[in-house]
Amino acid sequence: MPRFDYEVFDVFTGARFQGNQLAVVADARGLSTADMQTITREFNLSETVFVLPPENPQNTARVRIFTLGYEMAFAGHPTVGVAISIARARKLSGDLRLELNAGLFPVRVDLDRPAAFAEFQNPNLPAERGKAPDAGLIEAAMSLPAGAIERDAHRPRIVGAGANFLYAKARLADVRRAKLNPGAFDALDLHETVGVLLYADGGEAADARFHVRMFAPNAGIPEDPATGGAAAGLPGQIALAGALKDGTDRWVIEQGFEMDRPSRIHATVEAHGGAVKSVRIGGEAVPVMKGQLDF
Description:
Number of domains: 2
Shape: globular
CATH architecture of the largest domain: Roll
Distance between the termini: 6 Å
CATH superfamily of the largest domain: Diaminopimelate Epimerase, Chain A, domain 1
Helix content: 10-25%
Low-confidence stretches: none
Order of helices and strands: EEHEEEHEEEEHEEHHEEEHEEE
Radius of gyration: 18 Å
């Protein structure tokens, strides 16, 4: 019976048992797509990644990312976590090049810190991706009162940067008290959209630029403690709202507090003329466990 080594990391945190959990299968050669989906469901985490040899030998690895429901072209915390896993295993530091279904992702890894840190450059700039549902439907899906979702400059939009999310802004108190209503969520009729990202200015930490929550029941994720893919698209929503300043800005995006898994996502956004020109997403990750999978 073949055996596959794996590690589990907590990502977007420097402390174990916080952040977003990630399983990394270090050498997935011999596994089919169906096998990968089955193993992902066995781990029962929001995402599992499978490392394969690169298609281009100049790159570091090919990476496939699975949620409980389906394969993702790109997701943020898997990209950060798998880069740190590869760097630790191969004793690398500095620049890695990861082949994802959504493109080639340059990642810089720093292992010389109390908790390893990785930051990727997203080759997919955020852009609006179709018509968003009515704000009232989002309020119902999030168990929020009428008028809780902003309808002006920050009105709900579907924005994608390798993966599409529905962005909706509310007051911090409303973001904190939101609760998934599965039946009403189905009425959003989100096709090719991972889930809903609620966001508010500020947060728990003094340096937090945004406090966010992400709900994706159709991907098998009722709520996610840290969503780097949604963080990568958030600058596009802010730009469309006319609130993105030119130059280089660094954000801390906090998430997971309502789940008792606090996370800190670092976003570096470059803008010119009110448009996004570059997005880098980074964060820490810590190993929690490792073992072998019999399959």
